[in-house]
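Try this one yourself first.
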């Protein structure tokens, strides 16, 4: 009889655990449109700051900042779909802008190295010290 009681308690614990885990998982998928929009705008702002820090603002397009402003305004107005779409566009543009900046930086470094190696002009003429 005691084995049946222990098994029942064990089975009850498993079922309770499954219900708790299932309940928690359900809550994340039931995020409101407002919460989704807030998260998207926050992520977009974070990405803009990351690009600013890495590139000294050189990796940002002017349009990106305007779209971020639109995302914030839409969020304030309660137009969560427009806010999310604009925030997603900001995220896309920051990724593209950063990739473009990195490519141009790498090309500049190659050109500078080639010029230095070929002796086309002295380093002092193309560095900040010159």
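Now uncover the answer:
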């Amino acid at each position: 009889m005691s084995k049946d009681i222990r098994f029942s308690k064990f089975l009850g614990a498993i079922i309770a655990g499954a219900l708790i885990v299932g309940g928690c998982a359900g809550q994340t998928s039931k995020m409101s449109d407002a919460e989704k929009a807030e998260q998207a705008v926050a992520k977009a702002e974070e990405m803009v700051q990351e690009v600013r820090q890495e590139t000294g603002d050189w990796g940002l397009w002017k349009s990106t900042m305007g779209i971020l402003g639109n995302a914030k305004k839409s969020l304030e107005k309660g137009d969560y779909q427009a806010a999310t779409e604009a925030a997603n566009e900001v995220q896309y543009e920051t990724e593209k802008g950063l990739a473009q900046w990195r490519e141009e930086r790498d090309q500049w470094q190659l050109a500078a190295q080639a010029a230095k190696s070929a002796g086309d002009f002295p380093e002092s003429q193309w560095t900040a010290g010159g």
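Discussion: DSSP finds five helices and no strands in the chain. Residues 80-118 form the longest helix (39 residues).
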